[in-house]
Amino acid sequence: MVDLERLERPESEVGALDVQALRRQFPILGERVHGKPLSYLDNAATTQKPEAVIEAVANFYRHDNANIHRGIHTLAERATAAYEAVREQVRRWIGAPSAHEVIFTRGTTESINLVAHGWAGRHLEPGDEIVLTVAEHHANLVPWQVVARRTGAVLRHAPLTEDGAIDEDAVCELVRSPRARLCAITGASNVLGHEPDLRRICAEARRHGVRTLVDGAQWVPHAPVDVGETGCDWLCFSGHKMLGPTGVGVLWGRRELLEQTEPLLTGGEMIRVVELDRATWNDVPWRFEAGTMNIAQVVGLGAAIRTLEQIGMARVQRHVRAVTGYAIERLRALGATIYGPLDPTRRCGLVAFTLPEVHPHDLAQWLDQEGIAIRAGHHCAMPLHAQLGLGSTARASFYVYNDEAEVDRLVQAIEGARAFFR
Ligand code: C6P
Fold first, then answer.
1. What pLDDT does 422 receive?
2. What is the mean pLDDT of residues 187-206?
3. pLDDT per residue over 349-375, tens digit each?
4. Which of 116, 187, 273, 274 has the fewest CB atoms within 10 Å of its CB?
5. Sequence ranges of the domains in the chain
């Protein structure tokens, strides 16, 4: 098992992370790709999993596996207790007032859809305005397009600033509109990396009676998060981008809003009483967790949160920002165009860039041959790429187990690609 206490260096270096010690806890990082050591720089797509998470999932199946909330036997009780304990863990981790406000979903996409269809689809009226930004991931665009079509609501998109950040002034201006009802905004763009000032935006929205949803897919894994301090009404995030398993995510929402929300899925376990022609719903949050959930994955998410807590989210943020800042510096020196604000303290751990000589897809393929995994494409943000006048970008994204040496390796490999494609 990981002794995470030992990952921290002595007093003189308080706050620094022993990346090499941490890396040993991620078995996949020892893999070789095309005969080269793996540098995994595609963490914004999904992160790798430490032994603690892999073991938590495997041990659940080895020792505790049963369906939850149903059985009276010992395994069923153990499985239910393990699953519900993670709900409380999530509550504490995001500073939510009650575990009843924490809903397990498949991920950010499902969490946003639950609010869009279950709440907004029932509460918005023709002419009401939904405030978004041009930088949103498709997961925070398409559900609102569908809801707008269904309700007659209107979409309003805040633009970018000159320096390629989300225009926070414009978001605040849009939420001041008398018809604005809901603002759904990313906590960190998966292309620009920009972390907009959520406190300011949520406070402004609240002053004008506008509800706020934060797409936390790229934000929650990178920052200490407290929903009370942020002031949002809903927070959505995915376990797989923060060391946890795929297939599990979270929707946090204020209790009174969840009480007004219709479930997306109906069926077993989400009901109180079922007759042949009608049914009543279970309490929040269980009314939103129909059927057999991803129980082992929820348990794995608990292990991921434990790992991040042991490292400390302030340390995660500091480390990832340092590596990201270094990457921005080195890529700029190389002549790459970087998208989003250049100041690493305004961003999460990713850098989208283009090079004059090499197409992003060619670059990603070249780097793969060198054992370096990055992502190339529109990153599920087609409207943002259209705004930038691009079809695709290359994106390197970092997490706790990456370091500056991997950035050096990336830069060196890019130099090789440029020489080849020039
Ligand atoms: N972005 C990326 O490579 P899911 O797939 O539901 O876990 O997360 C969706 C999602 C929502 N919002 C943002 C800001 C995101 O970045 C993502 C996922 C991945 O950028 C896969 S497209």
1. 84
2. 98
3. 999 999 999 999 999 999 999 999 999
4. 273
5. 4-49+312-421, 55-309
Closest atom of ligand 1 to CA, residue 45: 3
List the beta bridge partners of residue 238: 249
Per-residue pLDDT tens for 39-89? 999 999 999 999 999 999 999 999 999 999 987 999 999 999 999 999 999
Closest CA to 233 of 251, 249, 208, 217: 251
Written as one string, the DSSP assignment of 45-103 is T-----HHHHHHHHHIIIII---TTT--SHHHHHHHHHHHHHHHHHHHHTT-S-GGGEE
Q: Whose CA is nearest to atom 3 of ligand 1?
A: 45
**What pLDDT is stored for residue 70 in this prediction?**
82
- Residue 356 Cα to ligand 1 middle (Å): 27
Q: What is the rounded CA–CA span in Å between residue 419 and residue 402?
A: 26
CA of 45 to the centre of ligand 1 (A): 7
Looking at residue 14, its pLDDT comes to 53
Residues with CB under 6 A from ligand 1: 44-45, 107-109, 137, 139-140, 186, 190, 215, 217-218, 238, 375, 379-380
CATH topology of domain 55-309: Aspartate Aminotransferase; domain 2 (3.40.640)
How are beta strands 234-238 and 211-215 bridged, if at all?
parallel
- The average pLDDT across 212-232 equals 98
Decide if 4-49+312-421 and 55-309 have a common fold.
Answer: no
Bond prior to 285 in cis (omega within 30° of 0): yes
Report residue 43 CA to chain centroid gap: 10
pTM over 0.85: yes
Q: What is the mean pLDDT of residues 205-230?
A: 98
- The CATH number corresponding to 4-49+312-421 among 3.40.50.10790, 3.90.1150.10, 1.10.760.10, 3.40.50.10540 equals 3.90.1150.10
Of 20, 27, 41, the closest CA to residue 395 belongs to 41
Running DSSP on this structure, what letter comes out for residue 1? Answer: -
For the segment 327-337, the average pLDDT, to the nearest whole number, is 97
Per-residue exposure over 191-205, b if at least 16 CB sit within 10 Å of its own CB, e if not:
bbbbbbebeebbebb
Tell the residue nearest (CA) to atom 17 of ligand 1: 217
The residues annotated as belonging to the active site are 380
Taking all residues of the chain, what is their mean pLDDT, rounded to a whole number?
96
